[in-house]
Amino acid sequence: VQQAIPAINTLSANAAGNEANKQFITQIGQRASDAPNIIKFAGTVSDLVNANKGKLTWGPGAELSQEIKKGLVNFAPGLGDVLKGQVAATDAIQKMTSSLAPVLARQLGGGQGSDAQLANGLMSVPSLHNSEAGAVALSDMIIQSAKKDVEAHNYAMQDPVNARKLYQQYLNDHPVINPLTSNPIMLDIGKQ
After folding, report:
1. How far lies 189's CA from each of 119, 136, 176, 186, in Å?
2. Is residue 1 within a helix (H) or strand (E), and if so which, with residue range?
3. CA 88 vs CA 2, 61, 71: distances in Å
4. Rounded to whole angstroms, what are the CA distances from 3 to 7, 21, 120, 121?
5. pTM of this structure
6. Contact of 129 with 62, CB cutoff 8 Å
């Protein structure tokens, strides 16, 4: 009986390790399968911002400005005609942001993050609350991250037993780059 206890402990540790590894593989598989939608939505936001450079209101007051423009389009047809394209572009950006936010929220810590982490993550979705350049930069970094999730997943699946180690190694070796500073984003975060 004494000799069987270490063997049982070893089996339990292996079973726990295998279960944690299975959960991790499922989690990174979900991230990889979400990537095409993330790339699509973030790319559309970036395209809309770039197509309307200098024409939209960004940052504090952007939502109020949008409501005023909508009112003019609806109630002052002659004057509002000039603003129709801006209103449509802003509505489209908000729609893409609404579509992107829940997908990114699901990825934040695999559903294990705190409410504060979730709120911070959702503020990182490119939208009118950002600057114009910030919205484009966020879109770019979100696209980079989604592509790296797929690449890291594929790399990790070459050796599923060591998937966690390989996944993290890939992400460490291929960081997301801030297009505004050309630095890895973790380096920029460390400077703040």
Report:
1. 17, 18, 12, 5
2. none
3. 74, 18, 13
4. 7, 28, 51, 50
5. 0.74
6. yes
